[in-house]
Amino acid sequence: MAKDFARMEDSNPSANPTIHEVSDPSRRVFVRGGMAAAVAGLFGPLAAGTLAGCATTGGSGNVSGLGRAIGFKSVPMAAVDTVVVPEGYSTQVLYRWGDPTGIAGAMPAFKTDGSNTAEEQALQAGMHHDGMAFFPLEGSNRGLLVLNHEYVDDGLLHPDGMKTWTPEKVRKSMNAHGVSVIELQRDSAGKWTQLAPSRFARRVTALTPMTLTGPAAGHAMLRTAADPSGTQVLGTFNNCANGHTPWGTYLTCEENFADYFEGTDTPDAHQKRWGIKKGNGAKYRWHEHEARFDVSKHPNESNRYGWVVEIDPQDPTSTPRKRTALGRAAHEGAATALTNDGRAVIYMGEDSRFEYIYKFVSRDAVKPGGAAANRDLLDHGTLYVARFDVDGTGEWLPLVQGKGGLVADKGFTTQGDVLIKARQASDLLGATKMDRPEWTTVDPLTKEVYCTLTNNSNRGGAGQPFMDAANPRSNNTMGQIIRWKETGDLDATKFAWNHLVLAGDPKQSRYEAQGNIKGDTFGSPDGLMVDARGVLWIETDVSTSTLGKGEYANLPNNQMLACDPTKGEIRRFLLGPAGCEITGLTATPDLRTLFINIQHPGEPANERSDPERPLAVSKWPDGAGRPRSATIAITKNDGGVIGT
What we know:
Helix content is about 10%, strand content about 30%. By secondary structure, the protein is mainly β.
C-alpha cells in the first residue's frame, strides 16, 4: 500500500532501547561503516559483504543444477504506463479488479463506469491486489491462486466517487476488500486460463464471518455487544502481505486497520498506542453507516483486527480463523518455515514507523494430513520480538506473560493481554524500533531470513528516535534490507545479523540517500521472496506522492529486481505502469511462471482518483474505462526458468 511519508502512523512513544542509541561520534562511525569487521567473526561468509551491496551468503544450492545466477538483460528505468520485462519474456493479465471470481451461477461482468452493485462486487475480484500464493493441484500446470485485496480507491469504485455516501457504497467498499481464491490452468503453450466456474472459487470480504482462536480468544477486550463471547468477528480488511503453510493453508495479514475506525476526542493510552484517533474514519467513512467502526459506540471492535488470518483455500465452506497466538500488529507478512523437528516458524514485520519484527514458533510439529490434521497448530506456541544489538548479534525476546516484566501490575495479567497489546509488551521488553519492517522471506537453501525496511523519514528527526545499528540512516527516505541467521535451528533465541543492502541512488547529493547498491538503483523495498533456486526478488513501493520527485527524481516508476547473493548483484527485471505499486509475489513449483500484482495503477499523489477523470494518470491494463489492479503471469518465451 503506497503511503505518503507525512501520513505514516507513528504511535510509538517509548524511549527504548537506550542500549542501541548511537549518540557519540565514535559509535556513529562504527554503525555507519565499521560493523562488517565486527560481524565477520560471528557470521563467516555471510558477513563479508555487510553494508557493501548484495553480499555472498553462507550457503549455496540449486534447482535442477541451475544455481542462483541471473541471466537476463536489465530493464532500464523509464516513466512508462505499461509493464516492461526483459527481452525474451512475456506478460499476461489474468485477474483484474471486477473480473468474476468464478463462483458457479454468480459471475457478474465488470462495468467500466463503476456501477457494479455491492452484491456483484462480492462475487468479483476486489481492488488493490497485494500478497498472494500459488497452491498446486496438478504440479505446476493447475493450481489455486489466493490473493489479498488490501484497500480501495473510492474515486474509481463508484461512478461519482465519494460525492454522495450511502450504506450501499459502504457495503461495496467492504466487499472490495479481503481475499480471492481462483483456479488457474496452464496449457501446453505456457498460457494461463482462469477456470470459471470453479468449485474452489471464493471471495472473503470485510463481511465474512470469522473465528478468533488461540490464547486471546474470548478476552474481555475482544467482546462486543454483537459478540459477547469475544470469538466471532465479521470480516478482514487491509490485507497486505501474506504467507502460506506447509499444510496447505493461506495466511493473510491485517495491516493498517486503524485507518477504518473513527476515534474519539479523548483516546485512551491503548488507543493512542495503536493509532486509533479522531479523524481516522474520514478515509473510508465506513463508520457513517456501520456503527461498529465508531469507537465511541464500540470501543473494543478495533481490537478484533490486526491479526494473521488462516484460510483453507481447498474448502470454500471453511471459516477463516484469526490466530491470536501470532500476536496483534499492523501485520505485513508471515513467512513460514520449519525447524529440524518439524515445528512451524513464522516471521512477521509490522509496517509502521518505529515498530517491530516478530517470530512465532509452534509448540507442536506439523502432522501429515494437511489442513484438517493441523487445524489447531497455530493456536499454541511462543511469540518473540527482535532486539538487534550494535555488535551484529541479536536476541528474540519472548512475549510471554510473567516473563521479562510482562506482569499484572504492568497491565499484563494474562497471555491474552500480552497478545492484544503486543506493541506495549514489546515496548516494555526493549525491542528495537525499526524503519517500517514489511515483507519477510526465508532462503530455502541457507535458512537466512530477510526483511525489507521500507523507509522512515522521521528517523533522527526532532523528538524522534535516533539512528541505531539496524537502522543507521537519519531521514531514511530510501530504506534497506536486513537479514539474519539463527544461532542453530530456526527456534533459536539468538541470531547474527547484517544489512544485505542500503537502498538509494548514488546520484543524490545527500549521503544518507545514496545507498550502496551493486547494480540497478531502487528505493523503498517492500515485497520480497527467495525462490527455490536462491534468487532474491525485490519489489518496490514508492508512494505516488514521491515517485519522480526529490530524492526519487531518477525513479519515476515502481519496479521489481532480482538479486544473486553469490555475486553481490542486483538487476532490474520489471517496471510497472504509472502510479502503481509492484507487489504480490509467488511462483509455480517449476519456476517457469512468476505471478505478481500490479496494485493501484493510476493512483494520483493524493491516493484518491477523480471519478470524472479516472484515466488521468494511467490507462493500464485495458486502455479505457478505469485503471484496474491486476494479477499478471510472467513467462520466458523459450519456456525456461524465470531469471535464468
